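Open question from group meeting: does this chain pack into something compact, or does most of it stay loose? Before anyone orders reagents, we agreed to write out a predicted structure and look at it together. Recording both the input and the output here so the notebook holds the full record.
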Amino acid sequence: MSTRHPIGSGATYAGAGVSIQAGEDAVDLIRPHTQRTHRSEVIGSIGGFASLFRMPQHKYRDPLLASSTDGVGTKSAIAQAMDVHHTIGIDLVAMVADDLVACGAEPLFLQDYIACGQLDPEKIAKVVEGIATGCVQAGCALVGGETAEHPGLMAPEDYDLAATAVGVVEAENVLGPERVQPGDVVLGLGSSGIHSNGYSLVRHVLLDIARLPLDGHVEEFGRTLGEELLEPCRIYALDCLALARETDVHAYAHITGGGLAGNLARVIPAGLTAHLDRRAWTPLPVFNYIASHGRVPKEEMESAFNMGIGMVAVLPAEDVDRARAMLTARHVWNVVLGTVEKADGVKSVDAAKVDGAAKTATRANVDRVVMTGEHPRF
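Structure tokens returned:
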């Protein structure tokens, strides 16, 4: 049996839930935000079929391109619940730009992908405002992206974010485990909070189990719970690039999903072990808040969260004082976490455990990082 429509009432794209006009309105609102991120190498502006970026070849002898793709996970659910959308884009930039910096690459440009149930131009413009702010903090250009409506697949008010960033590094300056040596010092750079990992556990503990209101004031934070949970990631890109220029940094580890041990293990080569002392720092209050409300075991906290350390630098002992002075001058809180030594073949039962499915580490290399002691006041 055929399906008939009354005369003059044929199906339309808008009737199916997709507004082309709303997309065009969103582009108009986004354009000023992208323009404030542009570097001299950007060719043209948004609106074309592809973005053009002139490779800064004069700065490099043997340039390698680096790329990273990531999203913000379920932290976006907190932003949507609070109807606050101008900071979540900073988190998106942090996830990809600081992964590039971990290998020594300078972030050049970024493209975003925003999927939503129904395109609200004003809301999308707020999201992109945050992405642009993050790009400025990372020193990279926002050269374009895509906003897609998915009616029927996503609720009208829902959205999800992803981005890909591209950077460049001189081949001889690539950082990583090949450079790490016995006697190197592990230097931790403070996080601004939870950053953008572990929010499924955060929401389960604080919203589902404890049933805490996002707009409720929390004494420990000096602000509402929602404001604490939406604190944007610190973006370390420019700080790490400056540090690598002035000191002999051997490796960086961006502390995301998998925690401190799981991510640091990725830059510790076979035959060496990083020995860290939890007594060196006190985790931020938000981590104790989560652990206490959900009776979350220490091992679970350390595998899901950064525990107050968002980036780690591994460098020679003789460069530590200069590095710490530089970071302090740049208003980056930092602390010596421990040292790298030759592995003694003994597996410590105090090593932080990482779920076997975690992308950041395997059980075979978790013992490359051994954590001892207990955090003060945690």
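Observations to bring back to the group:
The two ends are 69 Å apart (CA to CA).
Residues 1-5, 346-364 have pLDDT under 50 and may be disordered.
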